[in-house]
Amino acid sequence: MSPQPRRRPWIPLLVVAAGAGVLYAATVAQGRVECEACMVYAGQRTCSLVAAATRPEAERRAITHACSILSQGVTAGLECQRVPPESMRCRE
User: Fold this and answer.
1) Can you spell out the DSSP letters for 41-92?
2) In angstroms, how far is the first alpha carbon of the chain from the final one?
3) Most buried residue among 1, 25, 89, 92 by CB atoms closer than 10 A?
């Protein structure tokens, strides 16, 4: 009879830790800039806070998200996005 091979329980733990590290690094890279856009459209007002990798992307996403809350439908959403924000605050 041949001896049973030794198990290495640390290998799955190493793989899980490496995967968690990659996921954390990707998450941190996506959220470097936070922007809050306050929009007024059709007599309503709302603010939206989002994070993105760059300031222009964070600004665009904040406006888009706020407009999606304020508008009903695609046409109204696009009209809302053409309105300048009431306020825009960003931090890096």
Assistant:
1) ETTEEEEEEEEESSHHHHHHHHHHHHHHHH-SSHHHHHHHHHSPPSEEEEE-
2) 64
3) 89
Distance CA 69, CA 3 (A): 66
Give me the residue spans of the domains in the chain. Answer: 33-91
Which of 53, 54, 50 is CA-nearest to residue 39? 50
Q: Kindly state the DSSP code that residue 21 receives in the 8-state scheme.
A: H
* Spatial contact of 61 and 50, defined as CB atoms under 8 Å apart: yes
Q: Which residue has the higher pLDDT, 8 or 33?
A: 33
| Tens digit of each residue's pLDDT (9 = 90 or more) over 20-57 | 777 766 665 556 999 999 999 999 999 999 999 999 99
Q: How far apart are the C-alpha atoms of 2 and 29, rounded to whole Å?
A: 50
